[in-house]
Design goal:
Blueprint (H helix, E strand, L loop, with lengths): L2 H23 L6 H29 L6 H17 L7 E7 L4 H12 L6 E7 L4 H10 L2 E4 L6 H9 L7 E4 L5 E2 L3 H5 L8 E5 L9 H6 L9 H15 L9 E4 H6 L10 H11 L3 E4 L5 E2 L6 H17 L15 H12 L4 H17 L8 H22 L10 H6 L1 H12 L23 H24 L11 H24 L12 E11 L10 E9 L3 E7 L12 E6 L6 E13 L2 E8 L4 H13 L12 H12 L14 E2 L13
Parallel strand pairs: 1-2, 1-4, 2-3, 6-8, 10-16
Antiparallel strand pairs: 4-7, 5-9, 6-7, 10-11, 10-13, 11-12, 12-15, 13-14, 14-15
Helix pairs in contact: 1-2, 1-15, 2-14, 4-5, 12-17, 14-17, 14-18, 14-19, 18-19
Amino acid sequence: MNTRSLAVGLSAVLALHYLIWRIGSTLNLSSTAATALSLAMLVAELLLVASAFLQLLFSALPGSDGQAEIQAAAVSLADDRRHNPRSLPRVAVLVPSCGEPLEVVERSLRGCLGLDYPSHEVWLLDDRARGELEQLSAQLGCRYLARPQRTHAKAGNLNHALPQLQAELLAVFDADVVPSRNFLSRTVGLFRDPLVGFVQTPQTYMNADPVMRNLRLERWLMPDEESFYRWIQPNRQRLGAVVCAGTSFVMRSDSLRQVGGFETQTASEDLATGIRLIAAGYRGVYLPEKLSAGLAPFSLEAMARQRSRWASGTIQTLRTGANPLTIAGLSPIQRLAFLEGILHWCMVLPQLVLLLVPLSSGVFGILPYKLDPQGLLTAAFPFYLSQLIVLPWLSGRSRGALMPELYRWVFALPLAASVVMTLLGRPKGFQVTPKSMSTMAGSGPKRQLLLPLLLLLGIQLASMLNLALHQGQLPGAVPWAGGTLLLTLIWGLINSLLLATAIRTCWDRKRFDTIPWFSLQLHAILSELGLKGPGQIKQVAVLITTLSESGCELGLAEQARSDWAIPGAVLELSLTEGGLSGCWPVQVVRIQRRQGGQSLGLAWGALDDRQREQLQAFLYRREKLWPMRLAPFDGLALLALGRRLLQQPGPDDWFQRSQLPVRGEEPAGPRAQG
């Protein structure tokens, strides 16, 4: 038995001991109301514990992680490229679009065209029939396809293209996603096994999501997709239940046609189609390498809409022929794995039930549990401590134990509404996540997100105040022990802090464009422009710390401060490392004095086509560009969160950019995190 299995086994023993104590010693059955609340809380807790334990169980089950197969496939493909390139399968790269800005689509198409693979064609599938996209496709050399009727959203768009394709494989990227140049080189070789139906790679973002950005926690908070792609998907690989995630995947064309194309009865056509392929006897393979990146939603409202669509579409899978409980061809463990992933979205409902416990206590004076110090010390404390230790370790530090709960609380109410409406058979229609400034939220929070949270926080604080003033002895209530009252107040305080954090997140930081900025370190020479003789042009060595398509930020040491690098000055930046060689025209936009030197904000001047292509390739398409970050210790992250809550956030602008590191480098210094 390996260490992972031992850790999961110990967690299971502690969980069982905790549940025996909860069921046998803590239920309050003194009245009808107390019994109802006590049982409701117990059921909610059982559901949450069962959901969490399934992930632990999947981590301990035996199976191959596929790494040997992945490496063998890469070697085999490299050999074919050298000795028999005509044997390589042809790949159709599909980019479905539905209203994304022109510059976003162009960035994705250029990345697809730049793939280092000799036999591929790029198709833009335009669901809005925009003339400017047709013109762009002709200019770049892509195939363009629009359809007369826009039914079944993304699935319908992809299915409309299938009869036009002659390629053996198809790769799909959302219109905001840019693949690394080696994407096909790393994935196509896996299809030498005729039973491989699709290969899924991680979905990652090149910009911080709104929760991270609004709280200015880019350094301290891991995006929630990290744990899915670095922990849950590898578990699914061992179980033969890999999830097709809608973008950044490659699929066998004949296999897709065999199962009837992409599923059209749910907004999560990717999940349902992947289940159909696996049930038909094909394999889904997960390649745990970040080979592409897209754009995270730009506003909290957009992110709530995205998450609600994911939840609704995933649950709708139960109403299709891809229902893992009823579809033929799946093993019991595959059914359980897919079902857990679907029902995961429903766990927001028991989470809200637990939120109401301190509320009912403060309003009615009825506590749905009875606690004793010995039970807390011997049952509850060991169980919760084990979760705090085991979860980060099993997930490869792709998540912390506490910080991911921020996402749950921020989106709890819109997700709960989406889940309930979908379970009632009334899901919302498909909505595209906005990718432009014009469709983003304004400077203030959206009332549909803010007001329910404010209401919950107000009731929560009022109930706690009522409890404290009456010391738990409200009229007609069951007498409480002092320890129980204290624990209830602490519970209510934690809920209040989480709600306050969720409320604080509703204010989107003001931003002026949607261009991603990246934290990195590049050495360069900044110099004057002019016709002076050798040795007369003034120049200084600088360190670039932040880079984007629109400009860069750099630092000068105190001794290098100059009187010629002034706002509005047109200068030249010479680069000799990192793939950005040559001289680049820049204009000084902003100067910030700081201890030990100064920082300059520079906008690119008139770049030629070669420089723009070089810049995009460097920013988005390099191999091993997107790092596998490690979640920081929760205690330090919580301290950072507390500090951020007390600060007034500035706009997402010069010297306080919201940015993520690239090439595995952490941001240089605290300023880089804004």
